[in-house]
Amino acid sequence: MTAEILVIALTILGEARGEGFEGMAGVASVIQTRAIERKQTPTQVCLAPKQFSFWNGGVSEPKKQELLKNPQAHNAIRLAKLVAEKRMPDVVHGANHYHTFQVSPKWSKGEQVVATIRNHKFYRL
Asked: What pLDDT does residue 51 have?
């Protein structure tokens, strides 16, 4: 597994491992959309400060290894490969932002939800 696929897969797992394949695909779509829009690599998108809560504060090596043992890891790696190859289908209607139902970030005020998957609302800003 390449370093890029590892970062993408860990981001997907860290953000949506409890959301099933569809929820993880939504996060993967957002990563790809941001990479294309911002002309950045998926790794740059994933590791950008304060963009994905999973990476806030850093992630220890034991935590990474624990996530890779998660039953959803295989699916996250499959999705990460699609993102790395720029072949991830857009399952969230061009969304480039999302959040869980448990939070209401300032940036989401007045914005239209373009997709909802389980506990995540997706937006195109």
From this structure: 95
- Other C-beta atoms lying within 10 Å of the C-beta of residue 59: 14
pTM: 0.95
Three-state DSSP class for residue 115: strand
CA distance 116 to 49: 25
Encode 76-106: b = buried (16+ Cβ within 10 Å), e = exposed. Answer: bbbbbbbbbeeebeebbeebbbbbeeeeeee
Measured over all CA atoms, what is the biggest interatomic distance in the chain, rounded to whole angstroms?
40
The domains of the chain are located at: 3-90
Using CA atoms, how far apart are residues 88 and 91, in angstroms rounded to an integer?
9
